[in-house]
Every structure is written in C-alpha cells, then in structure tokens.
Amino acid sequence: MSEYRYKLSSRAKQVLKKIKDKALLRRYQATMWAICERPFEGDPKVGDLGGVFTVGFRYVDGEHRVAYTVVEDGDTEPFVLILLVGTRENFYEELKRIWKGL
C-alpha cells in the first residue's frame, strides 16, 4: 500500500463529475492510484510549471492527462494533489492558471 493518498482540486472534481463514460472515469481513477504508488515517476514540468508532474494515457477519443503535485509539508501526511485532468487540448493553459492561483 502506498504512503500517499490523492486529493482532488476543485477543478479536477468538476471535470471528473462531468465524465459520463464510466470506462474513462475508471481509467482516470486507476491512473491516479498509480500516481500514488510512484508519485515522482511522472513527467516533471519546468519553468512556470515547476513542481508539477503529468502522466498521460491514450483513450478512444485521444490523449488524456493528469497533472499533480506532491505535498510533503511535515504538518500533515504526504499526499498527491490532483490539479487537473482532461484531454490535451488547452490542458497546459488551464493548468498554468490553476498553478498560479495556488
């Protein structure tokens, strides 16, 4: 069992709530649990997105991504904060807005 759990940002919750395709939703959930098992194996971003990791997977309608950061502040148990999930289209522009807002 992983020492990490994941928490969803409000934006990630909104996006996941709108997904009607149950198989796609399960795929996102499996990806998020896999991230908890090995959180530092995602693709680390640089520049404006320093501290953010992404993991992608292919699905019927194209490439999907999960963006997250690892929170280890010492006061709480470490966790993975899922910042955003979605298709590649406009993903990084929205991710930058979310990351700047934290």
TrEMBL record:
Record InterPro entries: ParE-like_toxin, RelE/ParE_toxin_dom_sf
Species whose genome carries this gene: Kyrpidia tusciae (strain DSM 2912 / NBRC 15312 / T2) (Bacillus tusciae)
Pfam families: ParE-like_toxin
The protein, known as: Plasmid stabilization system
